[in-house]
Records
---
Amino acid sequence: MKLFDIAHSRTGDKGDISNISVIAYDPKDYPLLAAQVTSERVKAHFTGIVHGEVIRYEIPSLGALNFVMHKALGGGVTKSLALDAHGKCLASALLDLDIPDTPA
Amino acid sequence: MKTIRIGSGAGYSGDRIEPAVELVEKGDIGYLVFECLAERTIAIAQQAKLNDPTKGYDPLLAERMQAVLTLCKQKGVKIITNMGAANPQAAAAKVREIAGSLGLKSLKVAAVSGDDVLDVLKTGDVTISETGERASGMSNVLVSANAYLGAAPIVEALANGADVVITGRVADPSLFLAPQIFEFGWALDDWDRLGKGTVVGHLLECGGQVTGGYFAEPGKKDVADLARLGFPIAEVGEDGGAVITKVAGSGGRVTVDTCKEQLLYEVHDPKTYLTPDVTADFSALRVTEIAPDRVRVEGATGRARPETLKVSVGYVDGYMGEGQISYAGRGALARGRLALEIVKERLALTGVQTSELRFDLIGVNSIHGEVLAPVPEPTEVRVRVVGRTETLKEAVRIGNEVETLYTNGPASGGGATKSAKQVVAMLSALLPRAQATPVVAYLEV
């Protein structure tokens, strides 16, 4: 299944850093997210877009993960040549990630 | 237990105006906060002020104030806003002028300044965080440097009876924290309560984003009546406990999910959310729906505030030129690709000097390259070429090369547009607190 099926997400930007939340609709799915959506997988998914470190933070009380991605916005909103200079659409791209139906 | 109700009247500079009017009319609020200052808005405002010393504040200030000022005064609703941007004093004078024209009596307007630290950066020993270089070495290209001030000067203005408080660069959550500190008499080192109040501010600072705006996913996360989206209200108790809600009957929703999305928006380490007031900790937050459109948020804490203030630094960083043109029908994608190749070769042939170039096919790969799975071939595609240059003249040449595809390129190109502009880019720096001194001035009707 797609991450889209069990989680929702929003992207924020600060300078050249993008952060993407991944929030389980059902808190019962949080362990699956925590097991499958690793910073390594997110970094690989965004090859060519994210050029820096991807750090994952866990917020179990919200059933959510937060990915902080460095060098992700072409220098930041004011200088980026990208059509989506804020990187607002990155959340949608992350929700396209394939994940197995059960925790590994 | 004493509670106060704070409404969020704007989530960004260009936001809708009537949801704020609705909040004042029907929201039973004590405070209306307009958050209108993005990272780069202040640099643009500084340039406007350079051209005209009476400008440099938010372009919608007058329209917003005309819409809410009379009713706010009648109902005793205090207004707090960062619409002062680069020129809070001029903004306050404008508000006084509007109050006069509306026939209001005894209105006190406070202007909070002191965030402008451009001179400190030009001459001092401040390092740019991203590059490690001295800011003073960039003095010839610096446009603006504004320190993020905290809640304290707004609290001072409220304590001195201000009806309207207008600031420049103040951290967004601080605009909402200030009325909580003032009303409940919290100490400025009561880190736990300041952390809780900062979470309330963070939830409200983007206006409709917590009431279902920027949230809808048809079929999965449906939101009713988005065209009449109600803006949020926080009902805060003196212990820092808060309920997020909105005006009954307005569009949108307040749910556990809308609140969770906003809680993590623009947050990095949830244990360490830095503001000028406090180091807030979001890592143990809990959200519970206690009634329709009423969500309780609890579990925030806080630690001592940082010793330095973040400074947003605006500087001129060359120019950007862009051109676009569309192709449609059978073979559109192939013609679009050919068009990009032609422009790429032309820019080289004619010697346009660029430091960075980008070739996009809108509708195909313009947002995420190859990250999203390929889709069936589109029946229309828009070509986009954009580049970074040292001079405006060079930037103009990029758009021109795209436009000349009209008579020189693939078949049936249409709707060409072009633009070129100066780029004001942003960097950040950390400044010892003592080097930015907030100043509060008052104007009265």
Note: Chain A touches chain B at residues 8-10, 12-17, 19, 21, 23, 25, 45-49, 57, 59, 61-64, 66, 68, 75-79, 81-84, 89-90, 92-93, 96 (CB under 8 Å).
---
Amino acid sequence: MRQSDVIVIGGGFAGLTAAAVAAKRGKTVTVLSKGVGTLTISGGTIDLLGCGSDGRPFASPAAGLALVDPDHPYSKIGKEAVQAAVDFFLDLCETAGFPYRGNLQEMKWIPTAAGTIKPTCLVPKTMDTAPLAETDMVYAVGFHCLKDYYPHIVAKNLQKLPGYDKTYHIAMVDPRFTAGRDVSALDIARWLDTESGRQDCIEQLRNTVKPGAVLLLPPVLGTRPDYQVLQELEQAVRCRIIETVALPPAMTGFRLRNLLLDHLKSAGVRIVEQAFVAKAIVENGRCLAVVTQNSDRERSYSAQAFILANGGFYGGGLLAEPGKAVEPIFHLPVKAPASQTQWSNPRLFSREQQPFAKIGIAVDSTLRPLAENGSLALENVYIAGRSLAGYDFCFEKSGNGVALASGYQAAMMV
Amino acid sequence: MEKASVVVIGGGATGVGILRDLAMRGVDVLLLEQRDLVNGSSSRYHGLLHSGGRYAVKDAAAGKECIEENTILRKIGKHCVEATEGFFIRLPEDDKAFEEKWVEGCRKVGIPAIPISPEEAWRLEPNLTRRIQSVYRVPDAAIDGFRMAWQNVASARRYGGRVRTYSEVVAIEQSNQQITGVKIKSFLTGAVETIACDFIVNAAGSWAGKIAGLAGIQVHVQPDRGTLLAFNHRLSSRVINRLRPASDGDIFVPHGSITILGTTSSPAESPEDNLPSTQEVLAMMKIGEATFENLGQYRLLRAFTGTRPLYSADPSAKGRGASRNFVILDHAKDNLTGFASIVGGKFTTYRLMAEKMSDLVCRYLKITTPCRTAEEPLVEDASPQLLAKARQYFPAYGTELAASRLGAERLEKVVNSMEQDPEKRQLVCECENVTLAEIETAAKDSTSYCLSDVRRKTRMGMGTCQGAFCIFRSVGAVDSQNLAWGQSTNDLLKEFLQGRWNGIRPILWGSVLREMELTRGIYEGMLNINGVIDNETK
């Protein structure tokens, strides 16, 4: 029997945050991780809260926090804990040598690959848009063969937006990969991780761009949580560089994940990979252990407390059947509209949240799951991240924000 | 003013068939379609090329037409047909007496129905239920409705036939009980114009009653809803039919890597009543489980709904009871010359329907050139030299796919583009093996106005991810070539994803919901194309 103080189920942003907080509080922590979480898909920006249920943006995440519904995870967590989670995160990144920028009092609007801007809160230095204020000259930079990124879309759409009415040019960099091969942002980031790749890229940029400009790049500035690629390129080309939000794989999320993994290793957290948690052993309202199933055998892991952070429908923490949603490990109640028609809106994109996005596990203010009658379902299980009920992260732009705050709060409760 | 000798209204299978037939006979013909080609019933169906077995008992004439046309289409449209063959299976709950009638019906009509043992059937189709009582092999096949239409158009264009899409007919013009033209309204710009013509063919399918009504003539077409389900697997290699009178949810048709199950039947409120419902899906799944017991474990792709244009001289006939045979109505009998409607029928017999209609038009125009649509292939085969060249640029199995999809002429254009610019070889849609060169070629066609139009021509976005990645690339591709039809890139993305959503929404569970979380996460969560904007700075 493997014994810990705290077991975290799920290796995404919520789970890794919870593990870091619990470890800092002196607990022995084991993370049971099935996959890699969605950081590598969604990216490393912490969207705290962009807009309300009417789709109108808040002046700042803090202003929004004061207005969320009682059922929203932020209401359960409380504004102070959200602030503490943000402080914890900023401190952790700073200490790791990869400082993030932003705070709850400021809404950051960052450019995307669609040429839109989106509201967020905490961003790596590579995504800070402050340099835009310093110049009128912008290059939208693309990479040959990177079929998930189109600099002309970025330039054409951005220039119509407030604060972005600049002179735009397009610059293309050739990473010299064999033609016909599918190239992703990860390939280019790995290319820029190498000394020769960086030199080649610098050489090409120098031939195209004028010093003093801002370069808008897809998120490709290396895979490691440091600003070495950014600094080297900025110095050599004598331009400021901003990474945009783009299609997966998301290098900004890779970096953040690497940062958290490095940190957890040094903090003595045990991470078990490819650990699919199939069931839980529960007695008298307390979870005694969870059982992982692998190709070879079952293993059980016991602990004083369990943090369930294994994602929503995408991550597998929730499963959906026609007209029904289930939580497969603890069989916690998941409230979902009985008629499938009520799960979603006829329009995919509208000024309304999608009901299915808000399906999840109802919790109390300690983030422990509630039974259908409103009483505590389990004494020592805490819910963090996407499986929480009551929020549509896509619509309100709270991706990674709820994960951070709930991961932090759950770990403070154990 | 634009002129044509003959105007064909309706860009479904029948309409494009008539366009090709008349063009091949040297007639100056223009086809008008209110949206995109095959946007109605001709793409919202099984994709089944009937052997005729389905009609052998109830409607021998229809059965005979099916087996004859089946043979012709395999020859002229071989790039659209996958010669899968089909099974008719009888389960314990199906009437044995019907089987006897059916065998006799097939014999009379000339449909080869070869009995095999259930054991042999399970060897060939291991997923089939073990409850089979009897099995017959018939020459059913799968047919791609989109491709069939496009290849008809490609053929018609070679003979001077013209096509205008997004052109809705709003008035039929006549003088002294004689057709003089049509008035059309652009769906995109709202602009109205008149096209002069001598003859109008009403091949508007479920909309045929509405078109005839514009001329003050009554044609009883009752649109009937049919919902279908696409699975992301090939459940069987053959078409599987239940050996019983035609009923809901009992035909499975394999297409490439997917299977289509259908269909339901209920009265439609209007021809546009084409959003599928969860209720229909679940009802069909339940029936389908009699044939494939573990049906619920397969991943769904989407649901879709079409309306059958059922014609009845008696307006009270409804649903499956109404005739599936086609009827040609020469409205000279209604005191309007130069106007005829073609109603009813089925996809399998579209060519025959087109031939009969074109015969009538040619008699009117005093043209004696005979119909040749049964002899000449829709598109030419790509030469071995062209295929060899294509293999240098396409992924391994993509060459044959593209050659079939494009036909020799367009394949050559695409291959040349790939030869000149290596980046054009990139796969925009990995699910369906669609290259950048092909997306650009389809976007440049005069009938393309949005990326859903490009999808119907190429199959881009029809695979597992339902466009989550390839739509962004397609937008990037058309925008960089200034082919974006004056639309914003965000609108292009939204239009396409909404189209996919219509078929996803009724089946929003399991892996389909997972996929949707990803799609929304990208476009709404990350890229904010839904447009939360900074109104502080305004």
Note: The first strand of chain A starts at residue 2 and ends at 9.
